[in-house]
């Protein structure tokens, strides 16, 4: 089954062609990061307009790179939630028009389910059930993947997502947007241990997380140093900040795996590209006898291939949408009705 998949939930316009949920025939991506870097973060209206400008050309590019024509497409998939509502609407509207024109099924895909499915593209042997740590700019979740389309959230952030926290900390340190990669590179230049940063604890919900206090602590450190005319050790702060994020994520993921009885874990999302978090996950899983799947860096960020992968399994489960499909800024991972 050949699926033409669209992703436009934030600042990457992506169109991919995926066969049977596991083989990527093409994956065309146009990032807007350089443009939004001028503002220190994503400007929703600009993102939406750029998606409109790019999506048709990327669709033609994806088909050409896959070596197929429109007639070879068996279904169209689109990420319809969650995300910046204007940006999501662009992808949904275009995907609906393509499905209508080609007379093929339209498959709605939850964005975070797509991130988890990126692992299916990298690891042919990976099958549910397993535990997923989904960590991105907009979401931080610990997910029990019971089956390809049956998932339960075991833990989540109560406020900021880990990726958002990285971006805000990077901005305070004068690093460019998006902040994940620059923070990672800066953190590697220090052994850390200089700044005592908070780790949150949610009483009664041991698998839940909170990053707002950590973000505020970094902001306060930077402002206090500026007011006193003191110089921050930026590399040490980046290292200690990343260590604090990892200390919230990794132990909870391990605890969730033990509680749910999983011996297999997969990471997903842009923050899964962070070298310290990847190393900590590897060490913890090795220590606990858990098989860990870490997607390659190119599949950690937003891409169309992950949407095409998950769409295949949504289709097998009987989930398709009519042409009145809407876009949603927020949606629980376990929701199944489009």
How does this model look, in words?
It is a single chain. The protein has 338 residues and is of the alpha/beta class. Helix content is 44%, strand content 18%. The protein has 10 helices and 10 strands. The strands form 2 sheets. It has a 5-stranded mixed sheet, with helices on both faces. A 5-stranded mixed sheet has the order 8-7-6-9-10, with helices on both faces. Strand 4 (75-81), helix 3 (85-102) and strand 5 (106-110) form a beta-alpha-beta unit.
Helix and strand element order: EEEHHEHEHEEEHHHHEHEH
Number of strands: 10
The shape, in one word, is globular
Measured as a percent range, the helix fraction is 40-55%
Strand order of the largest sheet: 3-2-1-4-5
- State the end-to-end distance: 22 Å
Secondary structural class = alpha/beta
What is the CA-atom radius of gyration, in angstroms? 20 Å
- What does the largest sheet look like? 5 strands, mixed
Low-confidence stretches: none
- Count of discrete alpha- or pi-helical segments spanning 4 or more residues: 10
Fraction of residues in β-strands: 15-25%
């Amino acid at each position: 089954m050949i699926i033409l998949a669209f992703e436009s939930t934030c600042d990457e316009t992506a169109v991919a062609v995926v066969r049977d949920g596991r083989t990527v025939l093409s994956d065309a991506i146009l990032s807007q990061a350089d443009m939004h870097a001028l503002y220190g973060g994503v400007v929703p209206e600009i993102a939406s307009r750029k998606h409109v400008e790019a999506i048709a050309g990327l669709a033609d590019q994806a088909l050409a790179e896959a070596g197929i024509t429109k007639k070879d497409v068996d279904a169209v998939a689109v990420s319809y939630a969650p995300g910046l509502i204007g940006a999501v609407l662009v992808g949904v509207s275009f995907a609906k028009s393509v499905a209508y024109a080609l007379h093929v099924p339209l498959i709605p895909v939850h964005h975070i389910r797509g991130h988890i499915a990126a692992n299916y593209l990298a690891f042919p042997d990976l099958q549910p059930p397993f535990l997923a740590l989904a960590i991105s700019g907009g979401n931080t979740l610990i997910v029990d993947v019971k089956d390809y389309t049956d998932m339960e959230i075991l833990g989540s952030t109560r406020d900021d997502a880990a990726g958002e926290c990285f971006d805000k900390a990077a901005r305070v340190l004068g690093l460019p947007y998006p902040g994940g990669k620059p923070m990672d590179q800066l953190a590697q230049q220090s052994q850390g241990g200089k700044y005592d940063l908070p780790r949150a604890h949610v009483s009664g919900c041991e698998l839940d997380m909170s990053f707002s206090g950590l973000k505020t602590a970094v902001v306060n450190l930077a402002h206090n140093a500026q007011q006193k005319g003191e110089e921050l050790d930026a590399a040490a702060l980046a290292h200690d900040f990343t260590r604090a994020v990892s200390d919230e994520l990794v132990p909870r993921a391990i605890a969730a795996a033990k509680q749910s009885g999983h011996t297999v874990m997969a990471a997903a999302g842009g923050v899964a590209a962070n070298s310290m978090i990847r190393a900590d996950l590897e060490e913890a899983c090795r220590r606990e006898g858990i098989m860990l799947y870490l997607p390659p860096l190119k599949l950690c960020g937003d891409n169309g291939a992950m949407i095409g992968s998950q769409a295949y399994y949504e289709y097998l489960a009987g989930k398709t949408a009519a042409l009145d499909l809407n876009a949603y800024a927020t949606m629980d991972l376990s929701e199944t009705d489009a």
